[in-house]
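Changelog note: in this version the structure field was regenerated for every chain. One regenerated record is shown below for reference.
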Amino acid sequence: MRKAFSLVTAIFLLVLMSTLMAIMLSLSSQTLKQTGDIYLQEQAKLLARSATEYALLAISAHEIDTNHKCVENINMHYPNPSFDVNVSIYYIGKNLPCDNSNILDNDISTKESNVTVIVDTFVTSLDSLEDIRYHKRTIQKP
């Protein structure tokens, strides 16, 4: 009787230990995947911020008059890991020479609000197993 009880106890402990090991292995692999995804998501956020600042710099360096049209789109590619960055710029102002598709309002009455821009930045991963997409929208006065 004692030997049978010891055998049942040993089998129970083996099953318990194997279950705990399987749970630990599952959590370990899940944590590794989450760490990689968090890294790529944070990199996408930083790229969106950088692309927005670059778009504002491009708008500031560009003269907006009838000879020089407005900056409307900026497309960039970040190589490693591979991200595609697309920036769309929409204008709010008075008598702007931009394309009508990029002007939200062309009859602003206040002088301070002239040439206000809405910058839409989209960052998309190209080579990740998970689709990582990040969108940032800001309103700025360049």
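Spot check on this record: The helical segments are 2-61. The longest strand covers residues 83-92.
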